[in-house]
Design a protein that fits this description.
84% helix; elongated; mainly alpha
Length: 205
Amino acid sequence: MSVVVSKRTPSQFEAIHNIAIMRCEFETLLLRNFGLKNSDEIIRKKYNPTLDDEAKFEYINSQLIGEKKYISDLLRSVAHNITMAQNIHAINIYEYNERRIYQDRAICICSSIKSELQYIMTFYNVDVNKLIPYQDMIDNQINLIKDWRKSDNKLKNRLERQEKHKKNIKSYLHCIKQKFLSFIHFIKSVCSNLVLKVVNFVFKQ
């Protein structure tokens, strides 16, 4: 169930808005090969100075292409999980937990992106200063999702009270039912004894 616009929290709005901006910023970074001005030259210098092994060069270069696609896929997955979370208007604990799972996944994937950026800085000798702003973007996105989760705690407390109230009502109704059944059994027993007494009285006459 979608969340009514008026009931969306500021953190929720910010998390949704920020991931859209972040994806655009990262696409620009990916188009620039993570800031590598001449990736071919860097790869050749670091991994094949003699230039006699084209297979190695092609492999390392394909790794760079694969990294760009992988990060793009991770960003898409973050956006997907945030969208799924914001489209769940939890009316019970089960739905709340489902929404929380999507939020947690988004945070974990953001951490994976940070890890990939660290790997790229190390593997391709990328200038740290060029990727720090992007790591800051991810940290900001993680904090926005965490704030969103924190604001959801009020919802969790309310849903837990509702669940407890439902259980109390259910327990109360079950108790009433048991007492009613016991009363019916008692009435049947009394009626049965009464009938027997009447029958015995009649036959004695």
